[in-house]
Write a structure and sequence with these properties.
alpha+beta, five-stranded antiparallel sheet, two-stranded parallel ribbon, globular, ER-Golgi transport, Longin-like_dom_sf
Length: about 210
């Protein structure tokens, strides 16, 4: 099993946290005014500029930048959704900025969730989907936070890992931490203890590559 990345979205649909493990190239920085939160921007590429290679952080290792070339999904009764990027492809000149990447991931999840509800009823839950290149895993909390993880296609369901991240590090270092502003429209989740704890949890998996 190979885990590529973790995205956390709040109830306002904003990406408040990002972490990756197997990218061969850091994500492309969002342009000015792209809407990416400060904590997420620092996690994506702390010291990167357009003319310099990004400096890897202590908790993330390079992996391929996502590009919209595979995984087309069309939701019932809605407009076609832009294909979700393939996390294992080599970086190309049309690599998406991270703010567009985050919107793409969230849009696919939202459309698939709505499709499942329309086809199977409100009691049915959307938890993951798989393509020939990757698998997306979703865990949604009662408070509206969405934990999304991308892995290789052969990986079994990782919803239990996302639940562990929420019930463990997220509750301990984010929800119960008075210094971490919840529902911040400008900062996001910026907590080194939380990032290190998530990293240890993922790397501690016996099947983590």
């Amino acid at each position: 099993m190979t885990i590529y990345s973790l995205y956390i979205y709040d109830r306002h649909c904003a990406c408040v946290y990002y972490q990756d493990w197997h990218r061969t190239k850091q994500p492309k920085r969002a342009g000015e005014g792209g809407g990416i939160l400060n904590a997420v921007s620092q996690a994506v590429s702390p010291l990167a500029t357009d003319n310099a290679a990004p400096t890897p952080s202590g908790f993330s290792s390079p992996r391929n930048t996502l590009s919209s070339t595979s995984g087309l999904v069309v939701a019932v009764g809605e407009d076609p959704v832009t294909p979700l990027p393939n996390p294992t492809e080599h970086a190309r000149s049309n690599t998406l900025p991270f703010d567009e990447e985050a919107k793409l991931v969230y849009g696919v999840v939202l459309s698939l969730r709505n499709m499942v509800k329309k086809i199977s009823g409100r009691d049915e839950q959307f938890t993951s989907y798989r393509t020939s290149s990757y698998r997306l895993h979703l865990y949604e909390t009662v408070s509206g936070y969405k934990f999304i993880m991308l892995s290789d296609a052969a990986t079994d369901g990782l919803r239990f890992i996302l639940r562990q991240i929420y019930n463990g590090p997220f509750l301990e270092y984010v929800v119960r931490n008075p210094l971490v502003p919840m529902d911040s429209r400008s900062q996001g989740v910026d907590n080194d203890y939380f990032r290190a704890s998530v990293d240890r949890l993922v790397r501690g998996l016996s099947v983590f590559n």
